[in-house]
Design goal:
- A four-stranded antiparallel sheet has the order 2-3-1-4, covered by helices on one side.
- With about 120 residues, the protein is an alpha+beta fold.
- Strand 2 and strand 3 form a beta hairpin.
- The protein has two helices and four strands, in the order E-H-E-E-H-E.
- It is elongated.
Length: about 120
């Protein structure tokens, strides 16, 4: 499938409860299904693991000092990020959620060593 301006790349950045691997898998399944159900295309899920939060965060009447950082890379319609953000805000396992528009995707299979930085 060819991606265009109609389906730009995005990055969903989540800080979720520090829970078991099964718990994190369940959270990621809900986030992934929310994207897919709205005609989005998942590209990659990246976990940075559990870490101490930079400051105490409050979400859904609870305070958190630890969380798991997860990135979900996807393509979707320009209206998709707002819809996903609203759904993730309601998820009691999500501490923080932000969605960034990713830069133009590099060619598939291109290695980091072949990308020039100026």
């Amino acid at each position: 499938r060819i991606f265009s301006k109609e389906m730009p790349p995005y990055q969903l950045c989540l800080v979720v409860r520090a829970t078991s691997k099964q718990g994190v898998a369940s959270i990621l399944k809900r986030a992934s299904l929310a994207i897919i159900e709205r005609q989005g295309i998942l590209k990659e899920i990246e976990s940075l693991g559990e870490r101490e939060l930079p400051y105490k965060m409050r979400s859904h009447q609870e305070y958190f000092t630890r969380g798991r950082y997860v990135f979900v890379h996807f393509h979707g319609a320009p209206s998709l990020p707002g819809e996903i953000r609203e759904e993730m805000k309601m998820d009691t396992d999500v501490i923080r959620c932000s969605i960034l528009k990713s830069p133009a995707p590099h060619h598939l299979g291109q290695s980091l060593s072949s990308i020039s930085v100026t």
